[in-house]
Amino acid sequence: MWTVLVRAGLRPGVVKPCRLLRSVTQIPQRSLVHQENLPKLPVPPLKQTCEQYLTSLEPIVSKEELEHTKELVAEFLKGGVGERLQKGLERRARKTENWLSEWWMQSAYLDCRMPVAVYTSPGVVLPRMRFSDRQGQMRFAARLITGVLDFKKMIDTDTLPVEYLSGKPLCMDQYYQVLSSCRVPGPKRDTVVNHSIGKTPPSHITVVHNFQFFVLDVYNSDGTALTVDQIYMQLEKIWNSSLQTNKEPIGILTSQHRNTWGKAYNNLIKDKTNKESVRAIQKSIFTVCLDAPMPRVSDELYQSRVAAQMLHGGGARWNSGNRWFDKTLQFIVGEDGTCGLVYEHAPAEGPPIVFLVDYVVKYMQKTEIVRSPMVPLQMPQKLRFNITPEVKRDIENAKQNMNIMVHDLDVKVLMFSHFGKNVPWQHKLSPDAFVQMALQLAYFRMYNICCSTYESASLRMFKYGRTDAILATTIESSKFVEAMQDPAKQNTERLELLQKAVQMHKDNTYKAIHGQAIERHLLGLKIQGINDLTSMPEIFMDTSFAVAQHYNLSTSQVGSKTDCVMCFGPVVPDGYGVCYNPMDEHINIAITAFNSCEETHAAKFAQAVEEALLDMRALLEDTAKAEQ
Ligand code: COA
Hints:
43% of the residues lie in helices and 15% in strands. It is an alpha+beta fold. It has an eight-stranded mixed beta sheet with strand order 13-9-8-10-11-12-3-18, with helices on both faces. A six-stranded mixed beta sheet has the order 14-20-19-17-15-16. The protein has a four-stranded mixed beta sheet with strand order 2-1-7-6, with helices on one face. The active site is at 345 (proton acceptor). One of its GO terms (molecular function) is carnitine O-octanoyltransferase activity.
């Protein structure tokens, strides 16, 4: 029933039986020894999850709601339903490599019918580059492409260094899912096809310029990658044969609601030429979008404008048609020095993507174009599309919807320059927990209540682990933010409450990354309930459960060496998406909201976060001084 993710064939250098399409229920084993030795994700004890669930509700639901939920939870535990579902989950955990990963991938991504653009695909904003013309753009793109191909060598040869978290090795599988893969729309559920490991793994990337897609072979016949110089020449040819600006933005179809795109997709690929062109994009190693310059904005607004360009392309008039949003990895290089990427979230989380970015940025710093004599290369193949009246109608429809989405997305990138991880470190506090408490304080100051808050936590200590959630609004965090707003409270008491709140966040982080959080366990129990075809347990139909799952603050830390920031859309209509990169001496924070919600405002929230961070530093420093 849950067979969805399909992987095609095999990776070179790994001896495994050949098969073209493989379902995720038969996840292939990585040959790496460490991968084999990774522990399996545990199913947390039922009673522990139920107790933690009730504790997590305390700051976000009313006393009456909490009392009612306590009764439902007691019934769930005593009446045998909870035990039965738990046993089902434990059975699944014994029988599968990871009881959660496939369910998570489906429920969070592949079943989701909202457009991938804005709603699920994160963007990455890289610092503004110094070029401002087409030569600079292409030189930069050529170096970026060779950097990614250099990274790919480590994947092809299984030499990617294993990452560690809290001293434990992490599952590296996600790195093997991001190149040569693409999402494909389905009538009710999408799939992700990975072409990297077939008999004939792809040797091309796709380049899109002025809405026109090209196949660019990036390997010579002897298997060596093209040089920067060669790629630059090929990009020039692409540029010169895509000067027409009146082309239909076929790629914009991929930004649609998934059911709409699913229907348009079937319609599009009825035509043989279209089908072959779509297949070439899907199979390509990755896509490079050579974007047209966007309207100029002030330096203050520049990062926010780029974040929007990464998330949606700026609208039908601008670069939204210069994408294939289903493609897992799309690097974006604008003629005006803009650069970054957008990635389709189903196969991987942000950290592996940003690790790749760090690698490529470092690679590019040492690579310059060296002109060398070379053999002439074939003209990159332009992908043709036959635009029938039906396809044309679908494109027009997609353009309209994209423009609505563009107008609805409110983005603010805050480059917080006053301090970074250094301040919490000096005061022996976890920087991540410190930023989370600033988000709590900012939200409380704006709305005078606490909301349900989600922070992604890595489960990659476990085989095929993806994420769980740290529920950042706690009894301790609510006491801290209330004290900050209470003029009767002394700073010493506020500081004590901040320290307790940070410690609680740290404890919850520890639990989450060790597989003992509650978000995914509750999801598992719920799906188990659905699969059992019995009536849904009442705890999942309860108001408290709906409140807990309504994440007004959907947050994630994605740290990197590069001075960049990841961004993503809110997960509820009246919420914020907050992604931050705490660097040693500054913090990059990307905040999104929807303009259609009157209560939310990305720039106002950014200002509240800035003030909260500054006030928290003052609290630490003033109290420390007073104690001296
Ligand atoms: N005193 C001094 N130093 C401290 C400290 C304290 N009290 N508490 C923590 N630190 C140190 C840590 O040791 C760490 O040091 P390191 O960078 O040398 O390893 C550093 O401060 C940062 O720690 P902290 O801020 O507590 O958090 P973290 O970097 O461990 O990150 C998570 C926490 C939850 C973000 C991380 O565990 C995680 O899961 N990341 C993945 C997120 C993800 O997958 N997102 C998906 C997005 S699509």
